[in-house]
Structure formats: structure tokens, C-alpha cells
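[audit] Reproducing an earlier prediction to check determinism. Same input, same settings, fresh worker. If the C-alpha cells differ from the archived copy the diff job will pick it up downstream; this log only records the rerun itself.
[audit] input (140 residues):
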Amino acid sequence: MSIGLDEKCHGMLKQAQLYRTEARVAVLKVLFEAVGPLRQDQIAERLPDGGRNKVTIYRTLESLVDAGLVHRAFMQERAWHFELAHHCTDRQCHPHFTCSNCGTTHCLKDFSMPMAPRFYKGFVIQHQQVRLEGLCPACA
């Protein structure tokens, strides 16, 4: 018997020592069901009650990011895209592919990229994110 989505969300929040609020559970469920990273407004559109106010969603995302359950995958057109952090490490996020034709972003969870050296010519690399662009299979 598999664990339901509610139980997964509750378990994640408990492990992170966060209160299980309705907003946190709802945002986690949306991110679990998403096929790729989502902007804050896209998360709001997918919430069961038609969306909560922007401040609630922003604060909820910030608390989930601070707890390490969610991370900012990348910024595009001045908007952060969020996703669950369970496929990433503290040092490296899985690669993302954005179609230059349709704009859809895909998570490449099974695609590995070599890790950049921690120190390079005086730079201290703390976190690696790779975003590839081109044509997705549907547009190619």
C-alpha cells in the first residue's frame, strides 16, 4: 500500500519540524503534482480554492525554502520558479531544459552533469544549477 499525498506532505513537514498548516500542505501537494518548476502565480492557480492571497503563498514558499523542502530552481523573466528539493543536493540541482519555442520547462532528473570544482581561479562555487535551452520533442 502506497502512502497518500497528504501523508507524504505531513511527513515532510514533520521531519522539517514545521507546523502542518493548510497552506503548506496545499503548496507541497501542488509541487508534488507538477511536472516541472512553477512560478508563484502558477502555484496559486493550481490551489484547490482558486488561490490564496499572494502574501500567504510567498510566506509559505519562503518557509518551505528555508526548511530545505522546496528550492528556487531558476529565475526567468524576473520570476523565481520553485520545485521540491528532493531530487537535488545542497551543492547541485538537477538540470532543467526550457523549450525556446513553447516555453515549457522540463526537469532532467535522470540526466547528470559533472560537478564544477569547488574552487576555480579564485571563485568559490557554492551551488551549481544548469539550465539547457533548445527544442523539446514536441516542438522539434
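[audit] rerun output stored. Observation attached for the diff report: The helical segments are 5-15, 22-33, 40-46, 54-66.
[audit] end
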